[in-house]
Amino acid sequence: xxxxxxxxxxxxxxxxxxxxxxxxxxxxxxxxxxxxxxxxxxxxxxxxxxxxxxxxxxxxxxxxxxxxxxxxxxxxxxxxxxxxxxxxxxxxxxxxxxxxxxxxxxxxxxxxxxxxxxxxxxxxxxxxxxxxxxxxxxxxxxxxxxxxxxxxxxxxxxxxxxxxxxxxxxxxxxxxxxxxxxxxxxxxxxxxxxxxxxxxxxxxxxxxxxxxxxxxxxxxxxxxxxxxxxxxxxxxxxxxxxxxxxxxxxxxxxxxxxxxxxxxxxxxxxxxxxxxxxx
Length: 279
What we know:
By secondary structure, the protein is of the alpha/beta class. It has helices at residues 47-54, 77-83, 99-104, 119-131, 147-161, 177-194, 205-211, 229-232, 235-242; strands spanning 7-18, 21-32, 36-41, 62-67, 70-71, 84-87, 165-169, 197-201, 214-219, 222-227, 246-250, 257-261.
């Protein structure tokens, strides 16, 4: 498949936040089309605010967000919903809704009010349920599921929407490590098979570096550094963005950089406590 050129989303001199308080400050960012962008940063650095502003849930106080060179605020709502999907943090499902019904809501942007449900809609929902391995939960109420199961249901709804661009805020929340890797592998499959542009916030730096084509580190509501994982995940970046001493090694599985945090204890050569000496 031929790679797309230019950014799918371009953010210019963006300031945005809540009420009178800006969380983002004159931020510039490009999300490359047809690639996977991972956004990392410390708590309160503006990661979620950035995703919400790029999806038009927040109106910026200054600056702009362009979708394929056009302001998202000039894009009709239904067209935007067909082009761009968002999985926010901690979404809330209607009480008593079944898994299948919630995933089907991902098809709403593609259908007129009185349009009949089509085979294409059915296939999109079935594919999303299968890809996230929740087909056996289709008739279960969402509010009876575990946190990890619910998260996979929301991801299935986003997949059923079949947008060109997918924004995900902490898609691996509530998932154990096996399901975290499974979901990230699924997003890579989606990117490679359909050319879907993916931009997501992750807390885990090592998973971010492993799965990103383009890695962005935020600090204080601004882009501290952006580029390839090799360019971004450095000891200097970890220190400046997270206030943490670290060592950067090469991941023997992926060949990408891997961060090892340096705490105050359990350093090489530090003796451990015998069992009888532990409090």
